[in-house]
Design goal:
The structure is a single chain. This protein has about 210 residues and is an all-alpha fold. Helix content is about 70%, strand content about 0%. The protein contains ten helices and no strands. The longest helix is centred in the middle third of the chain and has 26 residues. The termini are far apart. It comes from Microbispora hainanensis. Keywords: DNA-binding, Transcription, Transcription regulation.
């Protein structure tokens, strides 16, 4: 349906507040910026800010809803004959090649990560985001496979997929924080990601055997 004028204005106002807030957070640090300062910079009232964002953390993580649903959506929208891991793998590499933000493989992730590390409130919120993302993926896997409520398989699979994605994202952020060239980082992440998704697809049963004496 075509977006109405009222809805468009509300969306634009929300986006403007989020953009202004993120600019201030990245420049000065999350804990050093108040909601009142964000409101002044965005030319709105404090009440208006809270109409769109329940907390200051919501402004920093304004894409949290999309991020939490990212993996579950990839599974829901998978192609015919495509497994859950194959769908996430395809989506991951599409984002990596495009430099898209959704898997944290974009420019500026280093400063974003630094701001999170500086704030206990943001660290707690990011951990909750990761928990919610895994939970959404597990519920989607259970629905898509019509799993029994007592079947732990959807949660086990979701935990492994989320762990792989989280590890790859952190590796990218660590390399970027060290000042390495983005193109070189992506090439390195691609190699690690191929291995990570291979492990997800084929299992880890033959990994790390003790050598025979």
């Amino acid at each position: 349906m075509e977006e109405g004028l009222r809805e468009r204005k509300k969306r634009e106002t929300r986006q403007r507040i989020a953009d202004v807030a993120m600019g201030l957070f990245l420049q000065r640090g999350f804990d050093n910026v108040t909601v009142a300062e964000v409101a002044r910079a965005a030319d709105v009232s404090v009440n208006t800010v809270f109409n769109y964002f329940r907390t200051k953390e919501d402004m920093f993580l304004d894409r949290s809803e999309e991020t939490e649903d990212l993996l579950a959506r990839a599974v829901r929208e998978r192609r015919a004959g495509e497994t859950a891991v194959e769908a996430v793998r395809r989506d991951f590499f599409e984002a990596l090649d495009a430099g898209d933000w959704r898997y944290g493989m974009s420019e500026g992730l280093d400063l974003f990560t630094q701001r999170v590390r500086e704030s206990l409130a943001l660290q707690s919120r990011v951990r909750m985001l990761e928990v919610n993302r895994e939970d959404r993926l597990a519920r989607t896997l259970a629905e898509e496979t019509d799993a029994d409520p007592d079947d732990l398989t959807p949660r086990l699979v979701a935990a492994q997929i989320c762990a792989a994605v989280r590890t790859l994202t952190r590796h990218f952020a660590m390399r970027q924080t060290a000042g390495e060239d983005a193109a070189l980082i992506r090439a390195d992440v691609r190699e690690h990601a191929e291995r990570a998704f291979d492990l997800l697809e084929h299992g880890i049963g033959d990994y790390c055997p003790r050598p025979e004496p």
